[in-house]
């Protein structure tokens, strides 16, 4: 059975109760950060209310769901991460805090999101962290006074067997202003992002534009994308139906949606992988 995972961004005005958790096997709450002095996991006061209730609220609709807390992300200070993995004492501080905060919030594990670790020393030290982290998680779960399951630990790594891969699906697309509305094929010249400041659009908003403008959605197999245009606006997004043929053949163990927020998680179902 393929695991169905979604990443949930914590935003102001966000309501965890809006998520239909019955659609998923795992939900990941993002992002906790790393304290630059203690190297322990920290959650900002603004996010505390969301993180602390994330698991309990989701389990009301789906008692079997597993929740994870993501650490790092695109805005993290990766110099601190590099310093943390360098020596055993700071790795231990991080590991102990990760177990403590997971149990505090009732989550089933962590997602380690250090996407810019690309030096040989960072990769080597991160490998040591993973080994020590796994051993600590096993020890904590099997201790004499423990009745808890071993924490789930996931991360972005290289050279992994396909059966252990998580296929990431970007849960958004991009809109652009065409230089010439008549030249709207893949690779057409554009002048700037459209609709939003950076051009990024949620799955829900893209579907709304398709329906509102009655747009004809085209598919390009070479790039595995759907796109459509109206006037001088061009919008493109990954084609999930094609991706579905990849995971349905048993090539990956899990699916992970990037940048899902509550309204989109309600609108998206894994049985509806392509625009209509």
Whole-number radius of gyration? 20 Å
* Structural class by helix and strand composition: alpha/beta
Gross geometry: globular
Number of strands: 14
Number of helices in the DSSP assignment: 7
Cα separation of the termini: 26 Å
Average pLDDT: 81
Strand content: 25-35%
Report the order of strands and helices. Answer: EEEHEHHEHEEEEEHEEEHEH
Characterization of this structure:
It contains 7 helices and 14 strands. It starts with a strand and ends in a 9-residue tail after the last helix. The relative contact order is 0.15. The chain is α/β, with parallel strands linked by helices. Strands 1, 2, 3, 4, 5, 6, 7 and 14 form an 8-stranded mixed beta sheet that branches. Strands 8, 9, 10, 11, 12 and 13 form a 6-stranded antiparallel beta sheet that branches. Helix 4 links the parallel strand 5 (109-113) and strand 6 (152-155). The longest helix is centred in the middle third of the chain and has 23 residues, at 120-142. GO terms for molecular function: chitin binding; chitinase activity. This is GH18 domain-containing protein. Residues 3-276 form the GH18 domain. It comes from Canavalia gladiata (Sword bean). InterPro entries: Chitinase_II/V-like_cat (IPR011583), Chitinase_insertion_sf (IPR029070), GH (IPR017853), Glyco_hydro18_cat (IPR001223), Glycosyl_Hydrlase_18 (IPR050314).
